[in-house]
Amino acid sequence: MEELWSSHKEIIRYLYLVKYVTRQDVMSKMEEDYGFRASAGQYERQFKKWGFRKNLTPSEWQRVSRCTNKRKRDGKETDLKIDGIQVPPKKVNKAISRYGQGSAFDNARESKRLPTSQSW
């Protein structure tokens, strides 16, 4: 089964991360176009194994918010990429408004930088 997943890895990556379709839509497309059928749980495990992710944690979004706000003050635009894939601006704006800056305590405690697999 591992070889089967490996043979479809790039098309799954393209659909899920580049075209930004949902897991359910990836599952449907893979079954319809390639005859590849797997459960939602199998896809989730494989995504985790491959390091495919679309979302950041709340603390990561808070760091993104602080950085984008600083760049705005400096007159710069910001594009967020996760593992080299650009996150749609609509999603970034929604997440920043949801998670925002956090409390002063959280900001003082939060000294980590974004993981190296993410770029600006």
Structure description:
It is a single chain. This protein is mainly alpha-helical. It has 2 domains: 2-50; 58-119, no CATH class. The chain is 61% helix and 5% strand. It contains 6 helices and 3 strands, in the order ααααββααβ. It has helices spanning 2-18, 23-34, 40-50, 58-73, 89-99, 104-109, and strands at residues 81-82, 85-86, 118-119. It has a 3-stranded antiparallel β-sheet with strand order 2-1-3, with no helix packed on it. β1 (81-82) and β2 (85-86) form a beta hairpin. The longest helix has 17 residues, at 2-18. The termini are far apart. The mean pLDDT is 86.
What can be said about this structure in brief?
The protein is mainly alpha-helical.
How are the secondary structure elements laid out?
Elements (H helix, E strand, L loop, with lengths): L1 H17 L4 H12 L5 H11 L7 H16 L7 E2 L2 E2 L2 H11 L4 H6 L8 E2 L1
Structural key phrases:
120 residues; mainly alpha; 6 helices; 5% strand; elongated; Clr5_dom
Helix coverage percent: 55-70%
Give the spatial strand order of the biggest sheet: 2-1-3
Sheet/helix structural class: mainly alpha
Mean pLDDT score: 86
Could you give a short account of the major beta sheet? 3 strands, antiparallel
- State which percent range the strand residues make up: 5-15%
What is the helix/strand order? Answer: HHHHEEHHE
* Structural Rg: 17 Å
Distance between the termini: 36 Å
Counting structural domains, the number is 2
| Count of separate DSSP helical elements | 6
Give the overall shape.
elongated
SS elements, strand count? 3
Low-confidence stretches: none
